[in-house]
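Throughout our pipeline, every protein is held as a single compact record rather than as scattered files. This encoding replaces a full spatial description with a residue-level series of whole-number codes. The remainder of this section carries one protein's record, kept here as part of the documentation.
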Amino acid sequence: MIAVLPLLRRLLRALGTTPGAAIILVTTAAAVTAIAFRGRHLATRPPGFPGRGSPWFGIWRDSPMPWAALAAVAAVGAVVAWRWPRVCRTARWPVVLVLSAGLSAGWAMALAAVDGGWGQIAQPMTHKTEYLRAVDDMAEDPLGFLRSYVERLDERPIHVQGHPPGQVVVLWAMDAVGLGGPGWAAAQAIGLGAIAIPLVLTVTRRLVDEETARRAAVFCGFAPAVLTVATSTDAAFMGVAALTAAAATAMTSDRRGRSVGAGLATGVLVGVLLYLTYGGLTFLGPLLLPAAVLLRGRRPAPVLAALAGLAAVVGAFSAAGFWWFDGLAATREAYAAGVGSRRPQAYFVFANLAVLAVAVGPAALVGAPRLRDRRLALLIGAVCLGVAAANVSGLSKGEVERIWLPYMPWLVLAAAPLARSERSAQGWLAAQLLVGIAGQAAFRSPW
């Protein structure tokens, strides 16, 4: 027994110094908790879906397996796993960025089309809980809609109740110029979700180096999280969050005009994200931290420009009649009185992290303990702080496979050490793709 104690101390010391170990331990605890609950009283079974709930929002498949579609998707995945790591290593950097967006969007849509074909992709946007159901109300009286947003919150669709009015405003504006309907709403989510990938890689190249960004590009757009990218509006929030981070990083430019312009864009984007989702606070803090570190000692002009941009967005919504803090308070009250009251926080504080671990994939979990670059570790660690804040907020009890999408491409950066050799990159990318295919095959959800 005495001989075992030093080994135990070494093990605990190692676990305390590797970021991946904490994730693995929490995931194990979440799995034990999930077995204990066995899906009871979790309020994660969508209306009309038979069976019990689970840590994910949906049910385990109860319909025939679409073998032909799955085989076709698996064949595409095999080609991607074989060729993509070499492209990331040898192609010109702009080519890698463009292809990372296109391939990620294509993979997300291919998985979404497994059940029901390509026409199924936009179907989730038509559900009664979605934002599109509120667009007609806003079209009748846009300013009246914003002024009465808080007072009439209980009359709105569920997703509208849980968010500021920004997304409804976007869909209303799209409809006004002829881009209305579920197809264009899905295109908005897929497009913004796709551009998040090259933006995350651009920030990584700026804050770390190009070699690390190329290695991360192997995995960044192909995590199992793509299962919800093509069918969830949260993918649009992921794109705006990544665009905000990229603009904030550009504030560090030595060219005064560029840095001030980037500051103004950053402020506007911060405001836009805050009016798209109340979770924008937990997304933005970690993503802006690296830029804040780089801005130390520089002239204040970019920061002042950012504050001006933020003030413009806040002022516009406030003048239109919507006060952000009133909206947040009303949403917290509605959530606590509704589905939040049926989801035990003690369970989801662990289960959320288990779902997140599956969503970022095995490559991120295995790669995290191998991180050696402090700059990359700082970026990923800052995002982990945002995850922790969201997890204890009480507003993320379940459904984090879509709600936490803005965090996920940044966490997948932890897989970069696994792409040091082409064979290793191919194997771990194949593992990422297989988890996504397995998730699509085994699980049914509204998105």
